[in-house]
Amino acid sequence: MTDIIRLLPDSVANQIAAGEVIQRPSSAIKELVENAVDAGATDIRIIVKDAGKTMIQVIDNGSGMSETDARMAFERHATSKIRNAEDLFTLHTMGFRGEALPSICAIAEVDVKTRREGDKLGTHLVISGSRVESQEPCVCEKGTVITVKKLFFNVPARRKFLKSDSVELANIVREFERMALVNNHIRLGLDTGTRTIDLRAGSFRQRIIELWKASLDNQLLPVNVETSLVKIEGFISRPEYARRRNPLQFLIANGRNMRHPYFHKAITGCYDSLIAPDTQPCYFLKFTVDPQSVDVNRSPTKDEIKFEYEQQIWPILQAAVKAALGKFSAVPSIDFSSDAIPVRPLREGELPTEPVIEMKHNYNPFKTEYERKPSTNNWETLYDNFKRGSDNSELSAEIQEIPDTTVSGIGQFEVSEFDAVTSNSLFEEEPKGKLEAMCMQYASKYIITSSRNGLMIIDQHRAHVKILYEDYMRRVEKMEVVSQSVMFPESITLDEVQRAALLEVGDDLKRLGFSLEYESGETWLITSLPAMLKKGTPKDMVLRILDSVTEDSANYGLDARGGCSIASKVALMMARSSAIRRGEKLSSTEMEHLCAELFALPDPALTPNGNRIFCLLDEARLDSLFQ
User: Fold this and answer.
1) Which residue has the higher pLDDT, 388 or 614?
2) Which pTM does this prediction carry?
């Protein structure tokens, strides 16, 4: 038998590595800019066409490369940053793995022009799919110009899964913001074809304001602490400016962007009781630690960093954030100079009166309100009526007033123990929407009723979400969506990423009942909304829609039911914001109407995103509970 194990060709190995390092155009830009920073550049320009799919060009005024270095830079694991494994723990550069450039040239056509300070001529190198096409001397400015064309041209499967231009452009802008924040000492520019961003070198605060406009200036509180273990500096936002959508949260360690859930939790924990539960603070914090105490070689993208002393840094970080909140009066304080309750001054000759507390006869404060109230329930009648499905409204009201403790036996079992209904076979034996018994509410969350197949427990919120979703989708499919003008248009500020999303789905939003008109600068006006939208904040709704466009696939073709997938997203958002909440009391008529509408749907068992709406306890399960 012949041997079957062989070494992969370099071109194939580079394509495999590219799958980890270069995931989309923004990844290529990140790697090229980091190389320019390591080369000592003070001015870096980025030009993209078609959101980086057609062309990416990075121009820097760094040290440049010799003829030999220019060729070696595109060899796998070739780097000038480290010499041995020990150097990984004394890193002061952004790159060190030697994988970025060979990965890029394996999946694109690359054109390089570079020249060092003392050289009369530079080098022009052309590489396509890891194959060197040409290398010759050229006249060029000091520094390096790298042009990447036709990204993923030889990997059609990867190119097919790239998202729309607006989504890829949004990712490029986000990556540019992260790089610009880290390198505030460098002039950075971005030309997307539709907009040009030019950021001058300046302080950390100036860079934050340049990126996210001057309105952020008054929101920032400085953080500054230095210990023998770590130095933490930067800014956090005042509690009153916490955001429901798109909080600006950036952590930087030794000049490198990082994701660190542990430190994120430490920061947000300082805002407990200061901000609403559904909001997040903004923060921009730099950590400076001994390079030997961190490990940055945890992923090819180099955005995961492990700290050796992260548990010791936690209290230092929390103390620094709390000190900033307290120092600048961001924490609410008690005003002892004013009376909590206004007191009327006594008139001349008037004596102070003692408060009179009226006590009822035989009052016992240790009994619940229900125990103090005489029972008027005829349990035998209740049982008989429940068994035969009585529609007595007075009886329904009586049962609804029964406190949760009266059905606590059911509440002792987890929902996971119940049998889920995942098909319509349950309703084949009886007309849909017809229930045998009256409805009662438990814990203001669940509707309990009976059917011919057993005792049914329905999540009232999920049931209403399903009903509203199906109704809205039916209107969309029949082109019956009614748009209602807003008497007082609400202004909304959109960043670069959100504006790109709006350009892509603006027509779809109009078809779904939303209208936005440009006002000035970054401000738009919401002028009309779907008439079905009863609850929820229009501004928050629009932002959630635009964010979902940039986060999810942008192929808004037909979904499984033949409708526009963005319509499905909007329908689900509207249904969730307008649906009955858990904890909301319902009358017997409301419960019966909700159940009737639910079981009239083709598939009442699951919500649009696959969550269970109701569970069933059949007779066998009920019998087992009493054995």
Assistant:
1) 614
2) 0.62
Mean pLDDT of all residues in 522-545 = 81
How far is the C-alpha of 256 from the C-alpha of 172, rounded, in Å?
A: 17
Burial 111-133 (b: 16+ CB within 10 A, else e): bbbbbbeebeebbbbbbbbbeee
411 in Cβ contact with 403 (< 8 Å): no
User: According to the 3-state scheme, what is the secondary structure of 547-595?
Assistant: HHHHHCCCCCCECCCCCEHHHHHHHHHHHHHHCCCCCCCCCHHHHHHHH
Task: Report whether 62 contacts 41 (CB < 8 A).
Answer: yes
The tens digit of pLDDT for each residue in 360-374 reads 555 555 554 444 444
Q: Backbone phi, then psi, for 93, in 5-degree steps?
A: -120, 160
Give the SS3 label for residue 530: strand
**149 sits in which H/E element:** strand 143-149
Which phi and psi angles does 585 have, rounded to 5°? Answer: -70, 140
Cα 610 from Cα 599, distance rounded (Å):
17
**Residue owning tokens 């050229």:** 138
Do 536 and 578 form a contact (C-beta atoms < 8 A)? yes
Q: Report the distance separating Cα 610 and Cα 582, nearest Å.
A: 19
Query: Three-state SS for 376?
Result: coil
> What distance in Å separates the CA atoms of residue 265 and residue 579, rounded to the nearest whole number?
31
List the structure tokens of 276: 């609403």
What is the rounded CA–CA span in Å between residue 76 and residue 390? 78
Q: How many CA atoms lie within 13 A of 13 on its CB side?
A: 10
Q: Which residue has the tokens 């649906």?
A: 579
Q: How far apart are CA 211 and CA 184, in angstroms?
A: 11
Give residue 298's region: left, alpha or beta (phi > 0; psi -120 to 50): alpha
